[in-house]
Amino acid sequence: MEFVNDFSKLPSYPKTVLLMATHALNPLAPHLAEEVWSILGGEGDLSYAPFPEVDETYLVEEMITYVVQVNGKLRGRFDMPKDQSEDVIMECALENPNINKHIEGEDIARVIFVPNKLLNIVTRKK
Q: By the 8 A CB rule, do 26 and 51 touch?
């Protein structure tokens, strides 16, 4: 459904992509998929056509959502490029007013950092 929602917004539809989508539809609606396959000019019967090869370069995510917690409670999220260091995430967290108000006036006792996922700031009263 995500594919169809994003794909339907395009101004034009490449034939190769329509053939791949038809191939993916085949197990769910074989009669409809065969009909669409023949209308699009697919070679032979769809049931005997080899499934398209996966291009893994499209499966790698470049942006990651980093979650920032203060004392175990969610206080912020940042969408940033993958593999950011703890210092960069901490700097963004301290600049965020929602996170900063929960840290203000308290000492940072410990920082737990899970790469590409989480930054948890544990505080204690002064």
A: no
* Domain housing 96: 63-125
Q: Are residues 87 and 104 in the same domain?
A: yes
Name residue 70's beta-bridge partners. Answer: 73, 121
Measure the CA–CA gap between 60 and 109, rounded to whole angstroms.
35
pLDDT tens digits along 66-85: 999 999 899 999 999 998 99
- The per-residue pLDDT for range 115-126, each reduced to its tens digit, is 999 999 999 887
- State how many domains the chain has: 2
Q: What amino acid occupies position 46?
A: L
**Cα separations (Å) of 114 from 68, 85, 93, 125?**
10, 10, 15, 24
Q: Which of 74, 122, 72 is nearest to 98 (CA)?
A: 74
Q: Are residues 121 and 69 in the same domain?
A: yes
The CATH number of residue 105's host domain is 3.10.20.590
pTM > 0.85: yes or no: no
